[in-house]
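Input record, target 12 of the design panel.
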Protein backbone atom coordinates (compact mmCIF):
# COMPACT_ATOMS: atom_id res chain seq x y z
CA UNK A 1 0.00 0.00 0.00
CA UNK A 2 1.41 3.40 -0.91
CA UNK A 3 2.26 5.65 2.03
CA UNK A 4 0.60 9.06 2.52
CA UNK A 5 3.71 10.73 1.13
CA UNK A 6 3.77 8.46 -1.96
CA UNK A 7 0.09 9.00 -2.54
CA UNK A 8 0.48 12.76 -2.45
CA UNK A 9 3.52 12.56 -4.79
CA UNK A 10 1.46 10.46 -7.17
CA UNK A 11 -1.34 12.98 -7.00
CA UNK A 12 0.99 15.92 -7.75
CA UNK A 13 2.54 14.25 -10.80
CA UNK A 14 -0.84 12.89 -11.92
CA UNK A 15 -2.36 16.37 -11.84
CA UNK A 16 0.59 17.68 -13.86
CA UNK A 17 -0.01 15.03 -16.57
CA UNK A 18 -3.73 15.77 -16.48
CA UNK A 19 -3.11 19.52 -16.94
CA UNK A 20 -0.86 18.89 -19.97
CA UNK A 21 -3.54 16.61 -21.47
CA UNK A 22 -6.13 19.34 -20.86
CA UNK A 23 -3.76 21.81 -22.59
CA UNK A 24 -3.61 19.47 -25.63
CA UNK A 25 -7.43 19.27 -25.80
CA UNK A 26 -7.76 23.04 -25.35
CA UNK A 27 -5.16 23.74 -28.04
CA UNK A 28 -6.89 21.41 -30.52
CA UNK A 29 -10.24 23.05 -29.67
CA UNK A 30 -9.04 26.61 -30.25
CA UNK A 31 -6.86 25.82 -33.29
CA UNK A 32 -9.67 26.62 -35.81
CA UNK A 33 -10.03 30.08 -34.27
CA UNK A 34 -6.40 30.77 -35.23
CA UNK A 35 -6.71 29.48 -38.76
CA UNK A 36 -5.43 26.00 -37.94
CA UNK A 37 -2.40 27.20 -36.05
CA UNK A 38 -1.67 26.24 -32.41
CA UNK A 39 -0.92 28.84 -29.68
CA UNK A 40 1.24 27.64 -26.75
CA UNK A 41 -0.77 29.57 -24.17
CA UNK A 42 -2.63 26.53 -22.81
CA UNK A 43 0.68 24.68 -22.30
CA UNK A 44 2.16 27.70 -20.51
CA UNK A 45 -0.85 27.76 -18.18
CA UNK A 46 -0.47 23.99 -17.59
CA UNK A 47 3.21 24.44 -16.60
CA UNK A 48 2.42 27.31 -14.23
CA UNK A 49 -0.46 25.42 -12.58
CA UNK A 50 1.59 22.21 -12.28
CA UNK A 51 4.50 24.06 -10.65
CA UNK A 52 2.18 25.98 -8.30
CA UNK A 53 0.33 22.88 -7.17
CA UNK A 54 3.03 20.23 -7.29
CA UNK A 55 6.36 22.09 -7.06
CA UNK A 56 9.63 21.51 -8.91
CA UNK A 57 9.19 17.90 -10.17
CA UNK A 58 5.64 18.24 -11.54
CA UNK A 59 6.53 21.67 -13.05
CA UNK A 60 9.51 20.19 -14.93
CA UNK A 61 7.44 17.17 -15.97
CA UNK A 62 4.75 19.46 -17.40
CA UNK A 63 7.42 21.45 -19.29
CA UNK A 64 9.01 18.29 -20.74
CA UNK A 65 5.64 16.73 -21.66
CA UNK A 66 4.49 19.98 -23.29
CA UNK A 67 7.70 20.24 -25.33
CA UNK A 68 7.43 16.60 -26.46
CA UNK A 69 3.76 16.85 -27.41
CA UNK A 70 4.16 20.18 -29.20
CA UNK A 71 7.15 18.76 -31.12
CA UNK A 72 5.21 15.66 -32.16
CA UNK A 73 1.82 17.14 -32.86
CA UNK A 74 1.92 20.88 -33.35
CA UNK A 75 5.47 21.76 -34.40
CA UNK A 76 4.55 22.86 -37.90
CA UNK A 77 1.62 24.89 -36.78
CA UNK A 78 2.96 26.62 -33.63
CA UNK A 79 1.45 30.05 -33.39
CA UNK A 80 3.30 32.94 -31.83
CA UNK A 81 0.80 34.50 -29.46
CA UNK A 82 3.46 36.18 -27.34
CA UNK A 83 6.89 37.01 -28.67
CA UNK A 84 8.52 34.92 -25.94
CA UNK A 85 6.78 31.81 -27.24
CA UNK A 86 8.29 32.18 -30.71
CA UNK A 87 10.45 29.05 -30.47
CA UNK A 88 10.13 25.76 -28.63
CA UNK A 89 13.56 26.34 -27.06
CA UNK A 90 12.38 29.57 -25.58
CA UNK A 91 9.21 27.86 -24.35
CA UNK A 92 11.35 25.23 -22.61
CA UNK A 93 13.45 27.92 -21.01
CA UNK A 94 10.41 29.81 -19.79
CA UNK A 95 8.78 26.62 -18.51
CA UNK A 96 11.85 25.72 -16.44
CA UNK A 97 12.37 29.29 -15.21
CA UNK A 98 8.72 29.67 -14.17
CA UNK A 99 8.86 26.30 -12.41
CA UNK A 100 12.02 27.27 -10.49
CA UNK A 101 10.64 30.64 -9.44
CA UNK A 102 7.34 29.15 -8.32
CA UNK A 103 9.18 26.40 -6.44
CA UNK A 104 11.14 29.07 -4.59
CA UNK A 105 7.97 30.84 -3.60
CA UNK A 106 6.44 27.56 -2.49
CA UNK A 107 9.43 26.78 -0.29
CA UNK A 108 9.47 30.28 1.20
CA UNK A 109 5.77 29.95 1.83
CA UNK A 110 6.20 26.55 3.48
CA UNK A 111 8.94 27.96 5.74
CA UNK A 112 6.70 30.87 6.61
CA UNK A 113 3.87 28.49 7.48
CA UNK A 114 6.22 26.47 9.68
CA UNK A 115 7.44 29.63 11.44
CA UNK A 116 3.82 30.70 11.94
CA UNK A 117 2.98 27.31 13.47
CA UNK A 118 5.99 27.53 15.79
CA UNK A 119 5.00 31.07 16.80
CA UNK A 120 1.44 29.99 17.53
CA UNK A 121 2.73 27.12 19.66
CA UNK A 122 5.10 29.46 21.54
CA UNK A 123 2.24 31.91 22.04
CA UNK A 124 0.00 29.22 23.45
CA UNK A 125 2.77 28.12 25.81
CA UNK A 126 3.35 31.72 26.89
CA UNK A 127 -0.28 32.39 27.67
CA UNK A 128 -0.47 29.06 29.54
CA UNK A 129 2.52 30.04 31.67
CA UNK A 130 1.23 33.59 32.22
CA UNK A 131 -2.04 32.14 33.47
CA UNK A 132 -0.22 29.73 35.79
CA UNK A 133 1.98 32.55 37.07
CA UNK A 134 -1.00 34.81 37.74
CA UNK A 135 -2.68 31.96 39.58
CA UNK A 136 0.33 31.19 41.77
CA UNK A 137 0.79 34.92 42.36
CA UNK A 138 -2.77 35.19 43.56
CA UNK A 139 -2.30 32.18 45.82
CA UNK A 140 0.88 33.69 47.21
CA UNK A 141 -0.87 36.99 47.91
CA UNK A 142 -3.74 35.20 49.64
CA UNK A 143 -1.18 33.23 51.66
CA UNK A 144 0.69 36.43 52.66
CA UNK A 145 -2.59 38.06 53.66
CA UNK A 146 -3.70 35.08 55.71
CA UNK A 147 -0.31 34.69 57.35
CA UNK A 148 0.06 38.33 58.30
CA UNK A 149 -3.47 38.33 59.63
CA UNK A 150 -2.89 35.21 61.77
CA UNK A 151 0.47 36.43 63.05
CA UNK A 152 -1.10 39.42 64.74
CA UNK A 153 -2.75 37.44 67.54
CA UNK A 154 0.34 35.58 68.87
CA UNK A 155 2.27 38.84 68.70
CA UNK A 156 -0.39 40.63 70.71
CA UNK A 157 -0.21 37.80 73.25
CA UNK A 158 3.58 38.18 73.53
CA UNK A 159 3.36 41.91 74.09
CA UNK A 160 0.43 41.74 76.56
CA UNK A 161 2.03 39.00 78.68
CA UNK A 162 5.47 40.63 78.61
CA UNK A 163 3.93 43.88 79.86
CA UNK A 164 1.97 41.95 82.53
CA UNK A 165 5.10 40.11 83.62
CA UNK A 166 6.97 43.40 83.90
CA UNK A 167 4.25 45.11 85.93
CA UNK A 168 3.77 42.12 88.32
CA UNK A 169 7.46 41.94 89.08
CA UNK A 170 8.21 45.63 88.87
CA UNK A 171 9.94 45.78 92.25
CA UNK A 172 12.07 42.68 91.73
CA UNK A 173 13.44 43.58 88.28
CA UNK A 174 17.01 44.83 87.99
CA UNK A 175 18.10 47.34 85.36
CA UNK A 176 19.28 44.65 82.94
CA UNK A 177 15.92 42.78 83.03
CA UNK A 178 14.00 46.05 82.57
CA UNK A 179 16.10 46.80 79.49
CA UNK A 180 15.55 43.31 78.09
CA UNK A 181 11.78 43.69 78.48
CA UNK A 182 11.93 47.06 76.72
CA UNK A 183 13.81 45.43 73.81
CA UNK A 184 11.24 42.64 73.57
CA UNK A 185 8.39 45.15 73.43
CA UNK A 186 10.24 47.25 70.85
CA UNK A 187 10.80 44.17 68.68
CA UNK A 188 7.17 43.15 68.97
CA UNK A 189 6.03 46.65 68.10
CA UNK A 190 8.29 46.73 65.04
CA UNK A 191 7.01 43.37 63.91
CA UNK A 192 3.41 44.53 64.34
CA UNK A 193 4.21 47.53 62.12
CA UNK A 194 5.70 45.28 59.47
CA UNK A 195 2.73 42.92 59.55
CA UNK A 196 0.32 45.81 59.22
CA UNK A 197 2.41 47.04 56.26
CA UNK A 198 2.19 43.61 54.65
CA UNK A 199 -1.56 43.56 55.20
CA UNK A 200 -1.86 46.99 53.56
CA UNK A 201 0.27 45.77 50.66
CA UNK A 202 -1.71 42.62 50.02
CA UNK A 203 -4.99 44.53 50.33
CA UNK A 204 -3.71 47.02 47.73
CA UNK A 205 -2.79 44.22 45.36
CA UNK A 206 -5.85 42.03 46.00
CA UNK A 207 -8.61 44.59 46.17
CA UNK A 208 -11.33 44.73 43.57
CA UNK A 209 -10.57 47.20 40.79
CA UNK A 210 -13.62 49.32 41.36
CA UNK A 211 -12.89 52.73 39.88
CA UNK A 212 -14.97 55.90 40.00
CA UNK A 213 -14.66 59.46 38.76
CA UNK A 214 -12.38 60.79 41.51
CA UNK A 215 -11.77 64.46 42.17
CA UNK A 216 -8.07 64.68 43.11
CA UNK A 217 -8.59 68.10 44.75
CA UNK A 218 -11.02 66.52 47.23
CA UNK A 219 -8.61 63.61 47.80
CA UNK A 220 -5.77 66.04 48.56
CA UNK A 221 -8.00 67.99 50.99
CA UNK A 222 -8.72 64.74 52.90
CA UNK A 223 -5.08 63.66 52.84
CA UNK A 224 -3.89 66.95 54.35
CA UNK A 225 -6.63 66.58 56.97
CA UNK A 226 -5.30 63.09 57.82
CA UNK A 227 -1.76 64.47 58.01
CA UNK A 228 -2.72 67.52 60.03
CA UNK A 229 -0.68 66.41 63.08
CA UNK A 230 2.51 65.85 61.06
CA UNK A 231 2.00 69.07 59.07
CA UNK A 232 1.54 71.17 62.20
CA UNK A 233 4.40 69.51 64.05
CA UNK A 234 6.85 70.01 61.17
CA UNK A 235 5.56 73.42 60.05
CA UNK A 236 5.34 72.00 56.49
CA UNK A 237 3.37 73.66 53.75
CA UNK A 238 1.46 71.35 51.40
CA UNK A 239 0.08 73.02 48.27
CA UNK A 240 -1.41 71.83 44.99
CA UNK A 241 -2.38 73.19 41.58
CA UNK A 242 -5.95 72.66 40.35
CA UNK A 243 -6.03 68.89 39.84
CA UNK A 244 -8.11 66.84 37.40
CA UNK A 245 -10.96 64.41 37.98
CA UNK A 246 -9.66 60.95 37.10
CA UNK A 247 -11.12 57.46 36.83
CA UNK A 248 -9.52 55.74 39.83
CA UNK A 249 -10.03 53.64 42.94
CA UNK A 250 -10.60 56.53 45.33
CA UNK A 251 -9.41 54.93 48.57
CA UNK A 252 -6.25 53.62 46.86
CA UNK A 253 -5.45 57.00 45.31
CA UNK A 254 -5.92 58.52 48.77
CA UNK A 255 -3.38 55.99 50.07
CA UNK A 256 -0.87 56.91 47.31
CA UNK A 257 -1.04 60.65 48.08
CA UNK A 258 -0.98 59.93 51.83
CA UNK A 259 2.21 57.85 51.50
CA UNK A 260 3.97 60.26 49.15
CA UNK A 261 3.12 63.43 51.06
CA UNK A 262 3.69 61.68 54.41
CA UNK A 263 7.17 60.67 53.19
CA UNK A 264 7.88 64.18 51.88
CA UNK A 265 7.24 65.49 55.39
CA UNK A 266 9.03 62.61 57.17
CA UNK A 267 12.19 62.87 55.05
CA UNK A 268 12.36 66.68 55.24
CA UNK A 269 15.67 68.55 55.49
CA UNK A 270 16.55 71.38 57.87
CA UNK A 271 14.94 73.90 55.52
CA UNK A 272 11.22 74.70 55.88
CA UNK A 273 9.40 71.75 54.34
CA UNK A 274 7.53 72.60 51.11
CA UNK A 275 5.50 69.96 49.33
CA UNK A 276 3.75 70.73 46.06
CA UNK A 277 1.46 68.50 43.98
CA UNK A 278 0.81 69.18 40.30
CA UNK A 279 -0.63 67.34 37.30
CA UNK A 280 -0.41 67.82 33.56
CA UNK A 281 -2.04 66.10 30.62
CA UNK A 282 0.45 63.98 28.70
CA UNK A 283 -1.21 62.37 25.66
CA UNK A 284 -3.69 59.77 26.90
CA UNK A 285 -2.68 60.05 30.56
CA UNK A 286 -2.29 62.44 33.48
CA UNK A 287 1.21 62.88 34.85
CA UNK A 288 1.18 63.70 38.58
CA UNK A 289 4.20 65.08 40.44
CA UNK A 290 4.69 65.25 44.23
CA UNK A 291 7.69 67.50 44.78
CA UNK A 292 9.52 68.14 48.06
CA UNK A 293 12.65 69.94 49.20
CA UNK A 294 13.73 67.19 51.61
CA UNK A 295 16.86 65.12 52.11
CA UNK A 296 16.53 63.43 48.68
CA UNK A 297 17.48 59.96 47.45
CA UNK A 298 20.59 58.81 45.64
CA UNK A 299 19.37 57.85 42.14
CA UNK A 300 21.17 54.50 42.33
CA UNK A 301 18.42 53.47 44.78
CA UNK A 302 15.60 55.03 42.72
CA UNK A 303 14.10 51.67 41.83
CA UNK A 304 15.01 49.80 45.00
CA UNK A 305 12.99 52.04 47.33
CA UNK A 306 9.76 50.83 45.66
CA UNK A 307 10.45 47.26 46.87
CA UNK A 308 8.74 45.67 49.89
CA UNK A 309 10.62 46.43 53.17
CA UNK A 310 13.28 48.46 51.33
CA UNK A 311 14.43 51.46 53.38
CA UNK A 312 17.30 53.86 52.81
CA UNK A 313 16.94 55.98 55.90
CA UNK A 314 15.79 53.30 58.29
CA UNK A 315 18.31 53.52 61.09
CA UNK A 316 16.31 54.83 64.06
CA UNK A 317 15.87 58.46 63.05
CA UNK A 318 12.85 57.81 60.83
CA UNK A 319 9.95 55.51 61.73
CA UNK A 320 8.39 53.28 59.09
CA UNK A 321 8.30 49.76 57.72
CA UNK A 322 9.51 50.22 54.14
CA UNK A 323 6.18 49.32 52.61
CA UNK A 324 4.63 52.72 51.70
CA UNK A 325 6.23 53.08 48.26
CA UNK A 326 5.64 49.38 47.48
CA UNK A 327 1.93 49.99 48.11
CA UNK A 328 2.03 53.10 45.86
CA UNK A 329 3.63 51.10 43.08
CA UNK A 330 1.15 48.22 43.43
CA UNK A 331 -1.83 50.62 43.32
CA UNK A 332 -0.56 52.64 40.35
CA UNK A 333 0.54 49.60 38.34
CA UNK A 334 -2.76 47.90 39.02
CA UNK A 335 -4.47 50.85 37.35
CA UNK A 336 -2.15 50.56 34.35
CA UNK A 337 0.13 53.47 35.32
CA UNK A 338 3.82 53.94 36.17
CA UNK A 339 5.54 55.48 39.20
CA UNK A 340 9.12 56.67 39.58
CA UNK A 341 11.29 59.21 41.40
CA UNK A 342 13.74 61.86 40.29
CA UNK A 343 15.95 63.05 43.10
CA UNK A 344 19.42 63.86 44.40
CA UNK A 345 20.76 63.80 47.99
CA UNK A 346 20.16 67.19 49.62
CA UNK A 347 18.22 68.47 46.60
CA UNK A 348 14.73 67.16 47.32
CA UNK A 349 12.70 64.57 45.41
CA UNK A 350 9.89 64.53 42.90
CA UNK A 351 7.75 61.40 42.74
CA UNK A 352 5.92 61.05 39.42
CA UNK A 353 3.05 58.75 38.60
CA UNK A 354 0.61 58.37 35.73
CA UNK A 355 -3.12 57.67 35.56
CA UNK A 356 -4.92 57.20 32.28
CA UNK A 357 -6.99 60.25 31.28
P1 LIG B 1 9.25 53.93 54.88
O1 LIG B 1 9.02 55.39 54.75
O2 LIG B 1 8.31 53.27 55.82
O3 LIG B 1 10.67 53.59 55.15
P2 LIG B 1 8.63 53.76 52.07
O4 LIG B 1 8.38 52.55 51.24
O5 LIG B 1 7.58 54.78 52.12
O6 LIG B 1 8.97 53.21 53.48
O7 LIG B 1 9.97 54.41 51.55
C1 LIG B 1 11.10 53.62 51.27
C2 LIG B 1 12.35 54.44 51.45
O8 LIG B 1 12.42 55.42 50.41
C3 LIG B 1 12.40 55.22 52.73
O9 LIG B 1 12.92 54.41 53.78
C4 LIG B 1 13.31 56.37 52.38
O10 LIG B 1 14.63 55.96 52.52
C5 LIG B 1 13.05 56.60 50.91
N1 LIG B 1 12.12 57.74 50.66
C6 LIG B 1 10.80 57.66 50.42
N2 LIG B 1 10.27 58.87 50.21
C7 LIG B 1 11.28 59.75 50.32
C8 LIG B 1 11.38 61.18 50.18
N3 LIG B 1 10.33 61.95 49.91
N4 LIG B 1 12.62 61.74 50.35
C9 LIG B 1 13.68 60.98 50.63
N5 LIG B 1 13.65 59.63 50.76
C10 LIG B 1 12.47 59.03 50.60
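The sequence produced for target 12 reads:
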Amino acid sequence: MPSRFERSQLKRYGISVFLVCAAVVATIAIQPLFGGRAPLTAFTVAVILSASYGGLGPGLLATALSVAIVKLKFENSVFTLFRVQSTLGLFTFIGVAVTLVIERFRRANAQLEQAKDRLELANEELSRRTKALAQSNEELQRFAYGLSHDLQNPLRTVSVFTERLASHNEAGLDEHSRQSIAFILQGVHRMQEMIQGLLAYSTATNDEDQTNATDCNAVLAKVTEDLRGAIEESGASVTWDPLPIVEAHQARLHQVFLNLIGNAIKYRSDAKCDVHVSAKRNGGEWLFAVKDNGIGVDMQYADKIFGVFERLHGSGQYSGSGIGLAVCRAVIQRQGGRIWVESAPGKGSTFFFTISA
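The radius of gyration is 40 Å.
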